[in-house]
Amino acid sequence: MNNLRASHKLYKEQHNDKIDIKVYLEIVLGFIRFLMHNVFEGHEVKLPARLGSFYIRGKKVRPKLSEDGNIIGLAPNWGETNKLWESNPQAKADKTLVYCFNEHSDGIRYKIIWSKMGVNVKNKTLYSIRFSRENKRKVVKLIKENKEYITV
Known about the structure:
With about 150 residues, the chain is α+β, with helices and mostly antiparallel strands. The protein has 5 helices and 6 strands.
């Protein structure tokens, strides 16, 4: 099952009360918005049925230089890299990258975490979640507005 529409099919198979897919999606999306609102507020949200929890965690980035002089541990800033490549053909030929140093957050990289600590499911390492781009952008916006979260 990889999306909400597929979960509606499963719901219809397991329950007698048939809820229209539009109503089902409104309910589920409303619940997801509620959970993510609490995560954005800085709370750890525990999921029902011992399925773990969600929270935002920051980690201090410690970049290093490899033996051949490349930067290790930083993500490329593709917007700035493409601008550099348009203005400097030699940089494009050399594949020169511009990196994100996260100066706005003192070098801390934040992400939404699904903690599976205490999850009572077989093969829990095989399960993953991919948060929507909208939710990731919301975290970036909050960080740039000086919102602080748990840092390790």
